[in-house]
Amino acid sequence: MREVPIYPPIADYALLSDCHSCALVSKDGSIDWCTFHRFEARPVFARILDWAKAGFFRIAPLDDDYEPTRRYLPGTNILETTFQTPTGTLVLTDFFAYRVPQPGEDAHAAHPDHQLIRIARCTDGEIAVKVKLVPRFDYGLTTPRLDQVADDLVVACGGADALVLQSELPFGDAERSATQGNRTLQAGEEAFVVLTYQLPHELEPRRLTREEVHAKFESTASTWAAWADRCAYEGPYREQVVRSALVLKALTNAPTGSIVAAATTSLPEEIGGERNWDYRFSWLRDSALTLNALFALGYDEEARDYVEWLKRTTAGRASELQIMYGVGGERLLPEVELDWLEGYRGSRPVRIGNGAYSQFQLDVFGELLDTVWVYRRHGGEIDDAFWDFLGRVAGAVIDRWRDPDQGIWEIRGEPRHFTYSKVMAWVALDRVVRLAELDDREGNLDEWRRNRDELRELIEREGVDPETNAFLQSFGDGGKLDASNLMIPIVGFVTHDDPHARATSERTISDLSVDGFVYRYVTDGVDGLAGEEATFAICSFWLVECLARAGEKERARELFERLLGFCNDVGLLAEEIDPHNGELIGNFPQAFSHVGLIQAAIALDFPEASMSAMAPDAATSSVD
């Protein structure tokens, strides 16, 4: 029988990024996931999805007898891992070279290459250090050829990708498909390794000097730190909020301003199960909450870049609005199963692309108009062409709000009349009316208001459980719950102290959570998938926000601080948390989880400064 590989827990990984590329580094110094130049690009290392086939890049003590600890350098996405061994201490510093273009500078000039830099330093004693490079392109499908072009240079080439490895940790002769070597460092000695991504037809191996490597480190550290220092939050959870903001920045595609949902694909929602999706795309659903977080933390430039991406990407027919797009605005995101990969801990299938892009999800119209409302409330301008498009979006809502849909959780079962979807259709019409009133715009205001009122009446009649007063998952479903309904007061359909909102929170706690950790819904076949899943981090943070804004600060803070205890050792969260064993599950790190953390922290300490996308009076003046 084949020996089953032992995959590290998802929580063992830390994220590196240059706002183009990303990598996941394990506690043992192994890069087991890495995409260069775009988050959704073909990985050059993907061992996290198949331990035997998909490649890695490891630097660690030669002897595996060590204790690792690690941290991000304060205010940065530079990772520092310390290996304590019987003979000495090794400090491994990992980062993508990163800096922001200066005014008047070509953006490409700041990133002539995408370079992953690793610096190994012995701080006391002596330590033998090993390096092993096993590149596997195209999700492990392509084994590149390795050529040692000099004592310290190896080129990996195959297919549409190429890597240049420069190393002060000497290799033996490069094999056809991998290379490795080792060197003993004395106290005070260091050795660096630079991995540069290039296109094969532009391949030009070039060495960096030690001075250039240190200059890139200093530039990267100062750029990240300056960005982190801009964070306007000064409450008791500043460390966690700044780290979450750095995750959002790290998941931002610099050229376009889009923010991906996560750095990975197919990390499972259930170990061994089929709930494995590609999250390296930008969802409109995330946009309003992400914008609120960025604006609230003082990151206006990033928020406005995101809106500009949104305007470019959604341009066209309002009826063709999608729930998600590629980082460059791509609309065609076909879902493909990679049957040669075993998946993380045997969780198959491994998928790239995401078939949900073609689903009808009614809430998407509300997400877009809510985002524009947030943007306008923070001083953004809406030109005539964009206003015309928004009016057509409102028309599409009126045409379709009576239809069932796949809902916020992108079910692959039969469409339903989800309560939250109807609420977001109401939000769409509410926001377009408010935008028109705020800027004295022309439009079909009477029709928008009439349909908005019809939606409210429908939701209050069909979307509320008459026995418990809580909002239902969908119309006529016999009292089933859905954690998305925690968002109903957050988006302003009702106030946080409304009886329906309070009943929804309490029923969520009693029927849809374990010790306050919230499941999305009961997995009883509604989503068309087999198996179960863990609790969703953002749903638990929504519960914190609802409790805090309803005046139950003590309950909210106690739950929030327990949730913080499930962040990994460097402050990162996946999509889900298993409340029974504390394991992080799902794609990692998850932007939505960190947005939820930011919102909840602000709700706890500044409840009067609403993080919801509504105007202060949105819930009380919704019906004219």
Mind sketching the topology for me?
Elements: E1 14-17, E2 22-25, E3 30-35, E4 56-61, E5 67-72, E6 79-84, E7 88-96, E8 114-134, E9 145-150, E10 153-158, E11 161-167, E12 179-186, E13 190-198, H1 210-229, H2 238-250, E14 282-283, H3 287-296, H4 300-314, E15 324-325, E16 336-337, E17 351-352, H5 363-377, H6 384-400, H7 419-439, H8 445-462, H9 487-490, H10 499-511, E18 513-514, E19 517-518, E20 535-536, H11 537-549, H12 553-564, E21 576-577, E22 584-585, H13 591-605
Antiparallel strand pairs: 1-2, 2-3, 3-4, 4-8, 5-6, 6-7, 7-8, 8-12, 8-13, 9-10, 10-11, 11-13, 14-15, 16-17, 18-19, 20-21, 21-22
Helix pairs in contact: 2-13, 3-4, 3-5, 3-13, 5-7, 6-7, 7-8, 11-12, 11-13, 12-13
Descriptive account of the structure:
The chain folds into two domains: 16-203 and 212-227, Beta-galactosidase, Chain A, domain 5, CATH 2.70.98; 230-605, Glycosyltransferase (Alpha/alpha barrel), CATH 1.50.10. The chain has 13 helices and 22 strands. The chain has helices at residues 210-229, 238-250, 287-296, 300-314, 363-377, 384-400, 419-439, 445-462, 487-490, 499-511, 537-549, 553-564, 591-605; strands spanning 14-17, 22-25, 30-35, 56-61, 67-72, 79-84, 88-96, 114-134, 145-150, 153-158, 161-167, 179-186, 190-198, 282-283, 324-325, 336-337, 351-352, 513-514, 517-518, 535-536, 576-577, 584-585. The strands form five sheets. Strands 1, 2, 3, 4, 5, 6, 7, 8, 9, 10, 11, 12 and 13 form a 13-stranded antiparallel sheet that branches. A three-stranded antiparallel sheet has the order 20-21-22. Strands 14-15 form a two-stranded antiparallel ribbon. The model is unreliable at 610-624 (pLDDT under 50).
